[in-house]
Amino acid sequence: MSTGGHNRATTAGRLSVLVGALSVPAFVGVWELIARSRIVNAVLFPPPSTVAVAVLDWIHSGQFFGDLSASLFRVTVGFLIGTTGGIMLGVLTGRFRLVSSLLSPLFHILRPIPPIAFVPIVILWFGLSEAGKLFLVVWGVFFTVWLATHIGVQKVDRGLIRAALMLGTPRRQMLSEIILLGALPYIVVGLRTAVSISFYTLVAAELAGAFAGIVYRIEIAQQNMQTGQVMGGLAALGLLSFVADRSFAAIAERAVWWR
Amino acid sequence: MVAMMQNPLRPTSPLRLVDAPPEPSSTAPEATIRVENLSIVFDVPRGEVIAVDRVSLAVMPGEFVSLVGPSGCGKSTLLNAMAGLERPFEGEVMVAGKPMLAPRPDIGMVFQQPHLFPWKSVRRNIAHGPRALGKSKTEALRIADDLIEMIGLTKFASSYPHTLSGGMQQRVAIARALANQPRVLLMDEPFGALDAQTRAVMQDNLLELRDRINATIVFVTHDIDEAILLSDRVLIMSAGPGRILRDLSVGLPRPRSSAILTDPAYLALKRDCLDLIRTEGRKAFEQMEAVT
Question: Is residue B72 scored above 80 in pLDDT?
Answer without folding.
Answer: no
